[in-house]
Amino acid sequence: MRQSAFLDGAPVGFAVFDRRMRVLYANTAFATVHDLPPYDHTGRTVDELLPPGHLAAVKPGIAEVLRTGTVHRDVETRVQADNTTKHLLLNRFPLCDNDDEVVAAVVTVQDLTRTHASAELEGLRLQAWWTDRLDRAQQAGGTGSWELDLRGGTVTWSANLCRIAGVSRSPENLQDVLDLVHDDDREVVRAHFEALRTNTPATEVEFRLCRPDGRMAVVASIGETVTDDTGSVVALRGMYVDRTARRAAEADARAAVVRANAVQSQLEDERRVVLRLQRAMLPPAMPQVAGVELAAGYQPADGVAGVGGDFYDAFTLPDGRLAVAVGDVVGHDLEAAVTMGRIRSAIRAYAVHDPLPDRVLGKLNRLVCLSDDLSMTTVFYGVYTPWNGSFRYANAGHPHPLLVRDGAARLMPHRHGVITGVSRDARYLSFETSLQPDDLLLCYTDGLVEHCDGGIDIDAGVEKLCRAVTSPHLPDRLGDLVPSVIRAVGPESGRDDICVLALRRTGAASTCHRARQWHDQGQDEVR
Q: pTM for the whole thing?
């Protein structure tokens, strides 16, 4: 057979075998596949030409083509020779004479070794790329994957699962995994794997892993079964979710709640003690004076301290007149409550000696200014004469009382004196008015009309108070009216202390000579 220049230069191996499997022609590419020059191929049999590794892959196919005339297209095969593996793509087809008898077999061969190697390298590169991306995703999500081969008993953990457990490499088997589990959780984990192994529906299980560095990792495991073509369970696989940080945060939150509750309980205990102290400093009952109805209400602040320096007082003077006072010590703490008690006691002492309002407040101001342990205090103080309805009063920086007459409410017209404790030289003026039968005098602290949290200033609060005390639905008895007014005007939350003192003239009382004499002497001193 004459050689063809075209076939000699073809990039694909080409050879022709006769019926005795002798090489009639082989081009250069075919010879290169077998590492022999082309001239060494002609006349040789397949057995003489091909190494054993190639022979087993090529000879049976040639024999079948020569025997049956079958065409073999694109047959991929691997051959082993000289410790190397080659990937070959074979095509085999018959050559026939004029009578359609097979006289030879044509074999083309293409060496795909380099192509396969490149593909394998690319596959490895892609596998490494996806493995890296998976690892990063697991690190970001705090997860790790695992697999248990039930046929060989081997365990495979992802790199991030190893990080979560604090180990340098994957455990080799299930027992190694159980050895990392906390003693108290081991049976739960064992039952979880057993349920998966028997294809029993298994829920998520949470347990603790004891890391080699002494720390504890809390993980939740979810898993599924892997079956073969027959439906038999051959492997288990799943994922661990790292819940260590979440459980630590929850534990910290629970501990913080416990600490907060303990502190709150302690504050409540202290607040109750201070409230008892504060209430003990207020008058236990209103004095009984003929022709006068008295009532008072006190509502403590709802802040952290819960106590302050608001106070009220009402007491009879030696001549039968009635002294009333409402005040507010600057501050909201135990110190303010103690100051309140001392201020109230001082007012009583000064009033018994000389009850004129301007003189009482003047002495009180000097006391506060000279005492480092007393705080500035607003005070409204007045003296009511039951036998003629006269009411003399003075004010040291305190909100104006309300006078309710014939269904209308108005502020008492007077000028403020300065708050006590500001200046030793401060002077206070006395004012006098006359209360008619059924007139109501309402004295209060600023906590009733000034709502800091609700955006209501003191003027708006006073207007609200005026509407409340003139409402036709209020109860007649002062003991019921005072708490009703506090509920209607005071803020629901975020409030200051509230003190309210109400005085109503109900009629004239009998007089006594000593009371009139004392009263007339006081009037002469004013003139």
A: 0.52
